[in-house]
Amino acid sequence: MRTKTHYDSSLLLFLFFFFIFFVFHSKAQPLPTTDGYTCSANQTTNSFPCQTYVFYRAMAPDFLDLASIGDLFSVSRLMISEPSNISSPSSPLVPNQSLFVPITCSCNSLNTSETISYANISYTITPGDTFYDISTKKFQNLTTYQSVEVVNPELVATNLTVGVNVIFPIFCKCPNQTQLQNRVNYLVSYVLQPSDNISTVASRFGVETSSIIDVNGNNSQTWDTIFVPVAQLPELAQPTVVPSSPPGNNDDREGVVTGLAIGLGITGVLLLLVSGFWVYRENSMKKKGMVIGGGDVEKQRFQMNSKEGKVGKDSMGKEVSLIANVSECLDKYRVFGIDELQEATDGFSDGCLIQGSVYKGSIDGEVFAIKKMSWSAYEQLKILQKVKCSFSFILL
């Protein structure tokens, strides 16, 4: 009987100490709910509001630059680049690149009995948005859709109006007085990934695993937000990214290439036209200056007379036609200008008329019989070719 009584007393004592431990642990580390993390605004024990940071990952396609991420959290690019060890605020990002984004954490009352700590981030609803999608995708589980609904009781989650502003409570915590005395200056908000465990997170931030457990307990699950106590932010190792050329430069370069190609094409066409015109002009001039038949002396004299203007345009055509007929009947012939013939016959005066249309004329001391003929002189030339006389014939 005594043994049973002793056993019951030991069991009751064990249960009592277990209850005390559980209550103490629960007070020290309140468990998170879907609404958020409870807090106390008592200034003697906490340091609300405070400046802290969230760990954020760049992601495609909308958040691969600091400007878009800064707009999401309502901070400047420089406020992200400096703590994130990024040399230039305009540097492009790569997917999954690590960043520290600053937020202001405060303890907020939801109702008369509940207060949670969060950073007040305003977001404007766009077509297709839902509380769940924005919480899990754009804010990467740094809040929950249940907490968004609690913080925005006037909005209906299933009937959101495009353009309405919604408060997204980003989970955060401020160090208490004890933690500040232990040189804990920040409690960085970090979302556990499927590949994470407390040890890997502690290694990433350069802290002890036990320090993370002291703040968050040992029951954290994947996609939970935990708080990493640090004296200062660790230096993030950033990839080297070659900045891409601004779109304006590419457009300008393409415009220059296109303009150059068009200019060269037009220039080439003009050169072809000019070359073709020059060849056509040269060929035309050669045809106009060509003398058919005869020896070299007669050709040169005819060309000289043409250049000196002694042979008119109309007579030139007739002479060429006559020469074509003459060349068929005579072995040798000479070409005289109309001015020479008029001078030789004294203007075709009656004193030089021999008979009919035949005139006597002297050119360079040589006497010629000058006969006016019709242009179809083929038959007459055959007859003259058989005539034997002491002077030569000139056909006009």
Structural account:
The chain is α+β, with helices and mostly antiparallel strands and 396 residues long. It has three domains: 26-230, no CATH class; 248-288; 296-395, no CATH class. It is built from 13 helices and eleven strands. The protein has helices at residues 2-28, 66-73, 77-81, 131-138, 145-151, 177-181, 198-205, 209-216, 247-288, 296-307, 313-329, 338-344, 378-385, and strands at residues 37-38, 50-57, 98-109, 115-124, 165-171, 186-191, 225-230, 353-355, 358-363, 366-371, 392-395. Strands 1, 2, 3, 4 and 5 form a five-stranded antiparallel sheet that branches. Strands 8-9-10-11 form a four-stranded mixed sheet, covered by helices on one side. α4 packs across α5 (145-151), α7 (198-205) packs across α8 and α11 packs across α13 (378-385). The protein is rod-shaped and about 150 Å long.
